Amino acid sequence: MTNTKTNTGLSTEEAKRRQQQYGKNELAPPKKENFLKKILHILCEPMFLLLIVAAVIYFILGEPRDGAIMLIFVIGIISIDVVQEWKTDKTLNALKDLSAPHVTVLRDGTEQQIPSADLVPGDLMMLYEGVKIPADGSVIRCADLCVDESSLTGEAEGVWKISTEHAEPTGDYWRKDYCYAGTLVTQGTAAVVVDKIGAQTEYGKIGIGVATAPQEDTPLQKQTGKLVKTCAIIAAALFLLVGIFTWFNIADHAFHERIVESILSGVTLAMAMIPEEFPVILTVFLSMGAWRLAKKNSLVRKLPSVETLGAVSVLCVDKTGTITMNQMTMQEIWIASGTEEALIETMGLGCETEAYDPMEKAMLRYCEEHGFTKESLFANEFVTEYAFTNNLKMMGHVWRKDGQLVIAAKGSPERILTICSLTDEERTATEKQINYLSSEGLRVIAIATAYPENDGVIPASITDCHLTLLGLVGLADPPRESVKNDITVCNRAGIRVVMITGDNGITASAIAKKIGIPSSDRIITGEALEAMSDEELRQAVKKVSIFSRVIPEHKMRIVKAFKENGEIVAMTGDGVNDAPALKYADIGIAMGKRGSEVSREAADLILMDDNFTTIVETVKDGRRIYDNIRKAVGYVFTIHIPIAFASLLAPFLGIPPMALLLLPLHVVLLEVIIDPTCSIVLERQPAEADIMDRNPRNPKEKLLTKKLLIKSILQGLVIFAVSFGAYFITFSNEPGNAEIARSMGLSIIMLANLFLVQVNSSDHDFVFRSMIRLSKDKVMWAVNLGTLVLLGVILNTPLSGYLKLAPLSVTQSLMVLGLAAISVLWYELVKLMKKLQKD
């Protein structure tokens, strides 16, 4: 199918109609998970299997009311998990929509960017350098269009495309007037009419299966999976132990009751031992972390990278546009020969007619300010061009002006001087001027010209030219205002900032000195890097933070050298050739504004505003997310200890099964509180004040460190001692009133939970500071008040009878509150001691 409206493209209405006819431009439609399958998956978790077993046992015991309450709790917790999973899916889908590849099309006569999935046959795609072509189509017009089709044909050499009107039938399968989905534009621009989309494209036919790539668990998920399995194995062993003890403790009961109650005691302990919240913590924290980062202009494409962000120790950044404002302005010009007017005009003629490079835009602005408009410059007859390449670092255009051939060349002074005719004195003066302009932090470009006698003597390559140097121009791209402060933050956080630039070393050094990058006087150039062995480069990167005149291929080696030295590397990139290095870095960061589609696809993170400050904020947020995951894991261990020990100790003390501190009903009730606390409240914790004053964490360090485990065990044991002690003393005084004793112990655990979140929200700040910091958080207030209301309802309404609880007197309530506070707030003394030792 072709589109006859090649000037205006399709209308919005026509595009909608065609999408209904042809569907989305996708290789495979996204799979929708069955809702019942999700519930079945949740029910297969050990915790829920135990809950159902406990409910069945209650029914067998002839207590259908208790069994029904258990099932209601099961439905309640499943609902929490399903809602949480739905929110997570919604967040992830929103992130996928944001990160989906986009393409520029002509619709309703205007250029607009749309998701590639919304392309339809007949759309007019506007292609340019760095774009990954999203559909098959015919080329209706192009300028210097070169496409890498190796993903389809296996041929590494780029294919130069021509428009359909200039094409001649060749009989070849792969056409030169046709573009194919999955291939890359490496040079030039084009307008292409979409012919085939989705599975109908050549790329779709091959069926590479990109869209259905399997997802593997991250190292963090594997760690938590092992923790849950270990706890489950311990729970199974203790289940048998407690069951056997309970059996001997109730020898006076009937055989049937002894069996059922022994199993019930074991089930209670097993439920208390399994920390099934871990998978929820990881999924929620990482997905919500990614969502919060997206709001701050950092789009996470790969969820595990959220976890890695906190460990970044080396930040390799491009100078232009990331550290600087990417707003080049002409600062100085130096005349080597001829007149100022000749230099300015030649500089303009050496620029692209449709300039997108910031330097060329600045040059053309300067030309216009001095009377050389784009219209007058490019009204001359264009003859040929010498294209810019990373290896040459120079370019040129050949024009016919007033019947005279003119070569207008510009580029790196080091390269331009090699093809200029200069005396020793002229070369010395020029080099002196280059050094001066560079030391001022200016980007130096040399301008040169030649006048061939006729078309027959025009050199085939720019390196064959013999030019006259007209002079030098100095351009400045000033650093962003916030960068100096950001570099200070990075230095304080133990993150080494490494500048990688195509600019010369002196300019890069001047900028680095201005913004406070350490060792700014040590520089490695691309040429020097080329001559180094891998071992030499590994040693050099330990001391050098400035790499100049670097081509994208060198970035891979720099990243590799840092990684082999044990660093966790984040690297920015924007070009097609940056993609391998972005893939190789621990965190690849693509530029959202000026980055190519290829670099975005290779990256873990897309920087929507190309701003260095956003990178620093992203690393800070990565540290906050990891800190909060660790706090949540510690919290889960802490709060499970009093639940597990209460179930474990009771049979050894000869307490009858029906008089236990916690029956399965109450374990489930506590799970209803624990789940939202760890997955919602702790995820929202703000970053600690010193989070960017610490060195990056060791990526090999386990999530549950020895220090955290000891802290969690100590806190859990104290809460257990206080809650079980209050229960046991009350029960010993009134053996016939287990409900009051149980209400005391359960209330202490529930209230201690509230204090625990506040105390553990910071490892350094005292609890009153945490409370002040979180005083305006509505979610925190909702959880705190919700817990108090729930406690009031289960103790002081008819529901207490169903839950085998009893109302507490005012004295008992105050005692419970005081004991709950003491069971947790003692840790503030530990913080005080640490603070005094530090001071």
- Sheet with the most strands, sense and barrel status: 8 strands, mixed
Please mark out the parts with pLDDT under 50 across 5 or more consecutive residues, or reply none: 1-5, 208-216
H/I helix tally = 32
The CATH architecture of the largest domain = Up-down Bundle
Which class best fits the helix and strand makeup?
alpha/beta
Estimated helix fraction: 40-55%
Strand content: 5-15%
Record the strand order, biggest sheet.
8-21-20-19-9-16-18-17
| Number of strand elements | 21
Overall radius of gyration: 35 Å
Mean pLDDT equals 82
Query: Tell me, what is the CATH class of the largest domain?
Result: Mainly Alpha
**Tally of distinct domains:** 3
Superfamily (CATH H level) name of the largest domain: Calcium-transporting ATPase, transmembrane domain
Shape: elongated
CATH topology of the largest domain: Calcium-transporting ATPase, transmembrane domain
Distance between the termini: 76 Å
Quick take:
With 839 residues, this protein is α/β, with parallel strands linked by helices.
Describe this entry's structure for a reader.
The protein has 839 residues and is an alpha/beta fold. The chain folds into three domains: 217-292 and 618-838, Calcium-transporting ATPase, transmembrane domain, CATH 1.20.1110; 298-324 and 480-610, Rossmann fold, CATH 3.40.50; 329-476, Calcium-transporting ATPase, cytoplasmic domain N (3-Layer(aba) Sandwich), CATH 3.40.1110.10. It has an eight-stranded mixed beta sheet, with helices on both faces.
